[in-house]
Amino acid sequence: MRYLSDFRDAAACAALAERIRRLAHGAGEMQFMEFCGGHTHAIARHGLRSLLPENVRLVSGPGCPVCVSSQGDVDRAVALAGRDGVTVVTFGDMMQVPGSEGSLQEARALGADVRVVYSPADALRLAVDCPGRQVVFLGVGFETTAPAVAATVLQAQRQGITNYSVLSLHKLTPPAMRAVLDAGEVRLDGVIGPGHVSTVIGAGAWRFLPEEHGLGCAVAGFEPADLLLAVAELVRMVVEGRPEVANCYRRSVSDGGNSRALAVMEQAFQVVDADWRGLGVVPASGLHFRPELADLDAGARLALPKLESREPAGCRCGEVLRGVLEPSQCPLFGSACTPESPVGPCMVSTEGACSAHYLLREAG
Amino acid sequence: MCLAVPVLLKQKRDDSGTIDLGGVEREVSLLLTPEAQEGDYVIVHAGFAISVLDREEAEATLSLFRELADSQGQ
Hints:
Radius of gyration of chain B: 15 Å
Largest sheet of chain B: 5 strands, antiparallel
Low-confidence stretches of chain A: none
Shape of chain B: elongated
Number of strands of chain A: 11
Distance between the termini of chain B: 42 Å
Distance between the termini of chain A: 28 Å
Strand content of chain A: 15-25%
Strand order of the largest sheet of chain A: 2-1-7-8-9
Oligomer: heterodimer
Order of helices and strands of chain B: EEEEEH
Largest interface: A-B, 56 and 36 residues
Helix content of chain B: 25-40%
Shape of chain A: globular
Low-confidence stretches of chain B: none
Structural class of chain B: alpha+beta
Largest sheet of chain A: 5 strands, parallel
């Protein structure tokens, strides 16, 4: 399909890499953060780091929704899976994430009813098909996923489906980017803006980066040429000393985003503080149901108690998510912690920085 | 879980449609992109189309890439 293949064109990628090299020549060290886990995965899969000059470095940010779910969030999901009469439904990436007392996969091995779906719409259908069970969807994801989950919740309310609910662990990306910058632990010269989050919230949502932090932002698609174009734009901004928001993914992203998706999200959710792995509690960075939809909130409906959570011993995912530690600098990386036997979430999720770095290492 | 790719919308029925995903047909929700029409490429995430691919913008970006490649070749 040409809308994939043309953005992978080798000649275009070589030309973009050469453009980056020329622009960056003699310009000093530059470090850009790719916020999005999808970008982290694509950068590793296509070996894009090897195309960049030595003075241009990419560092991964907290943009994998599975990775940033706090230990408490994972524990609540596992606790729900152990309840009689409850079916927990989730995206596949969540299955292996280790909680304090095991993962969802281990809970399923012990008899819990845990199902993997491709879409929250599948979870709602399951609820209709299984009226005798409480079907709980784990609402994990950023602004890309939240509108889809919101749509199923509103549909459940309209249709009077009383055995469907959602544990909303949704998180918002701009507040997390602010938290990374405010912490001041990592020196950045620009940010690769998330492509599909920005499809929903709009490229304009990142204007605070140049305006408040003096950092350029290039919103990128997920093909190699898309990402190289974004890096070229960021290097140009550094060299010219003119940070701005460049939309390098115009075929999907507008300045204002998808107004319909934003409206659906607004109808179902209100913004609350949220606990992020690695970042702690970030103000106004999470989504909970509006009071009129409280019946669809799994946490309230199934009265989850407060749980004591423990981080996996020795796991440095928190520092990796803040961009202050390279995955390979973690003592567990590639030895005690591998994709086959992950200790922390960044090795579990295909979008996790540790998983991406491991993939690159395996590719040689 | 955030990986999403452009796929062809083959059929549309009210607020849902059928896409072709590598030879496998799947149903997607068009609740978030009611403007999508049969024959459009849509970006699908978690079973929901979240945008309709703008062909003019796609062509404009590809033209830019071709210009860059040509200028490098000279």
